[in-house]
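Example 3.2
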Amino acid sequence: MILIGLFIIMVGAFCQASSYVPINKIKEWSWESYWIVQGVFAWLVFPLLGALLAVTGGHSLMELYTADPKATFLTIFFGMLWGVGGLTFGLSMRYLGVALGQSIALGICSALGVIMTPVMKGLINGNFGVEVSTLTAAVIIGVIVSFIGIIIIGLAGSMRAKEDKGGEKKEEENRFNFGKGIVVALISGFMSACFSIGQGFGSQMFFPDTKPVFQGLPAVLLVTIGGFIVNACYCFFQNSKNKTWGDYKKGNLWGHNLVFCALAGILWYSQFFGLSLGRGFLQGSATLMAFSWCILMSLDVVFSNVWGIILKEWKGTSKKTVAILVIGLAILVISTFLPELLK
């Protein structure tokens, strides 16, 4: 059962890593325009359809959300913080470079998502000891190992950038600011980890007869609604600032772009749909349940880099750089089942 759960999470991570492929097919729309349109699918349409799978006969989603208004509010609130994390993610890459900035932010997101979820739940709900008891030595070791793997991949990415003799390298060097970058990466990483924290507060939002594989989906919808609110405000602000409202008036593009936005949206959502389904098979292992967020984030990084290899982004780099990348990927793969071996 555990292997089935891990496989489902792996498939979801692969889909998420693939979600940027259809985005590249979108034509003549600015970033802010296609981002919010794909967000309608990724953060509203597909999460709603997923959440409805958790609704059993004679019930409704609103019953779940009104039964515990405090949990509903906190789930949406942390979803909004997650939305802010996604928007600040780019700043970490601006100051640290794409590879290092992305790796540090994702590493922090992965680690804090596991650690801060029970901590925040315990502090706010007043049962700190019970919540943090899930953070066993095996879970903490798994978090540390996955963080090391992500940083090693970031190192490989930095080495690749130095081997690139193009203008992008010079521009990146001119913007490099380690001090600012670390601060922004810490903020972005924590904010991005708020997805996991939001899910934690909504973890009991399911009906008694809901199948375990669907129990986490109503909470995912609330988190993504929070993220959608933040992203919509930012994208519409950018539409006004950049005078790109006209993108939405290009009627001849809507059919084509809508298809690829929808495809990107369902691929992105698949990671959390897969996480919910996978957790349903991991309930026999409290260790892997506590570590599941880190598993998803680690596999996201693995498959993102696998796509980078497939798309020949690493072509022309030295054998040493590729070797370091492979070591980092191997460590991340090992980290996904290491806590279960150590418990």
